[in-house]
Write a structure and sequence with these properties.
Strand order of the largest sheet: 3-2-1-4-13-14-15-16
Strand content: 15-25%
Number of helices: 15
Helix content: 25-40%
Oligomer: single chain
Radius of gyration: 21 Å
Largest sheet: 8 strands, mixed
Distance between the termini: 44 Å
Length: about 450
């Protein structure tokens, strides 16, 4: 893995046309430099002050580019990159039960998750994502892949009440998950979250156990919630209560809760979320593709609820492109409310950076460019036909830039993407592994008719 300059006690000086620190609304700095030492940001200052404060130090010239905190993908199923394009244009229930779950039951093992997560991390780094929150089987393999690559992660300790290739029961999911947590507890880039799949796949008893664990360990808990009208209606029919009300009854509404999707909400529920400091993870493209519904983002923001953005998995998106996702979030809000001021460019960018950091419990470490925070930084080249001229770099990033304009990525001060080239992952090996799994799965599906 590419190392930072910290061992030699030499600061890394990044000088760019714009720096977007994400510390104040619609705020950016022109012709500024960010200084990195020992994995942290130690200074941010005008370029014309560099020669006085940092004489005789080399400067990395990023003319025409913007420096900003890396994107935080607050919800994905990383290993599902190996299922990208497997089955499209189906409603959620059919997509899961007829297409995804049968293939997962046959193929998901340690190698599948490790190699699939590597694939996802490579894609995310190339798109400017420096941190992701995962939810999938074999979290030990996901954590291993994340740790080796250098990306920051919050790995989900998956819990479901039915037997899978990972565990036979919810209790075994919990026990094995806690073992994984202990295995990586000294990592400075890998953290964990409790990840019950959904109220319809995890019993009330199991959720009660997870509520206690979440509080005891101060560990975030992410869960698919109110994803579709059918899901909510079915839950009410079986349990005589709405899913969010069940979580409230259990005591899961807290600043540790990451409620994913949330397309079906009433005003009272929005008030509950605000009063309890819960976080909403908005996955606009997956929700649109599966016709699940629209998360009421502007109402949530107006109520003071923290909003984060996730891509969901590549099997339902079909990419892990956070730039594209936050643009969709902004445009969808405007269409949903028939209001061009709904979810501004800055609000969308905030949700994809600091909003995600807050949801994952990492806002003291990452999510903004501030002295003392980890150097989780990306550079985006705006000196392109597609993004010139630049009147407002925030608007340009949200509405015009593409992930192919992400040139460099640093996580914890380590250079992981340099001039579009991955430094900690083997791109050729990842592509070969992906083709291997595609061949195996396609052959199996053909044999099964």
């Amino acid at each position: 893995m590419q190392q930072s300059n910290s061992k030699a006690n030499i600061p890394l000086i990044l000088a760019a046309d714009w720096v977007i620190p994400m510390t104040a609304t619609d705020h950016w700095l022109e012709n500024h430099a960010v200084i990195i030492l020992d994995q942290q940001i130690i200074d941010i200052l005008p370029i014309n002050q560099l020669s006085e404060k940092y004489p005789q130090h080399d400067i990395t010239d990023l003319s025409g580019q913007v420096l900003m905190p890396g994107f935080i993908n607050a919800h994905c199923h990383a290993a599902m990159n190996l299922l990208r394009g497997l089955s499209d244009d189906l409603p959620l229930k059919d997509w899961l039960e007829k297409a995804i779950w049968p293939v997962e039951a046959k193929f998901v093992d340690d190698s599948f998750v490790y190699q699939g997560t590597q694939h996802a991390i490579a894609e995310m780094l190339r798109g400017g994502t420096t941190c992701f929150q995962d939810m999938y089987f074999m979290p030990d393999q996901a954590a291993k892949a994340a740790h080796e690559s250098g990306i920051r992660s919050s790995v989900g300790l998956i819990v479901v009440d039915f037997e899978t290739s990972w565990a036979k029961s919810a209790q075994e999911c919990i026990d094995k998950g806690l073992d994984v947590f202990d295995q990586f507890k000294h990592s400075n880039t890998v953290t964990f979250n409790l990840a019950p799949h959904a109220p319809y796949t995890v019993s009330k008893n199991s959720l009660e156990k997870l509520a206690v664990l979440s509080n005891e360990l101060n560990m975030p808990l992410q869960i698919h919630l109110h994803e579709t009208a059918f899901e909510v209606e079915s839950f009410i029919k079986e349990n005589n209560i709405r899913p969010l009300a069940r979580l409230k009854e259990i005591g899961l509404l807290s600043p540790l809760l990451n409620a994913v999707h949330m397309t079906q909400l009433n005003e009272g529920e929005i008030q509950w979320l605000a009063e309890n400091g819960c976080h909403i993870v908005h996955c606009p493209q997956s929700n649109m593709k599966l016709a699940s519904g629209v998360c009421p983002t502007q109402q949530l923001l107006d109520a003071g609820v923290n909003l984060a953005i996730g891509t969901d998995g590549a099997a339902s998106n079909n990419d892990l492109d956070m730039l594209d996702e936050l643009k969709s979030a902004a445009l969808l809000a405007k269409l949903d409310y028939l209001n061009p001021t709904a979810m501004t460019a800055y609000q969308a960018l905030y949700a994809a950076t600091m909003g995600g950091a807050k949801a994952l419990g990492l806002s003291d470490i990452t999510g903004s460019l501030e002295i003392g925070k980890a150097a989780d930084i990306i550079a985006i080249d705006l000196n392109q036909i597609e993004t010139q001229p630049v009147y407002n770099p925030i608007s340009q990033i949200v509405y015009a830039a593409s992930r192919n304009q992400v040139t460099n990525v640093w996580v914890n001060g380590k250079h992981l993407l340099k001039d579009r080239q991955l430094l900690s992952l083997n791109e050729s090996l990842i592509l070969n592994n992906s083709k291997f799994w595609q061949k195996q799965i396609a052959q199996s599906m053909q044999n099964n008719g």
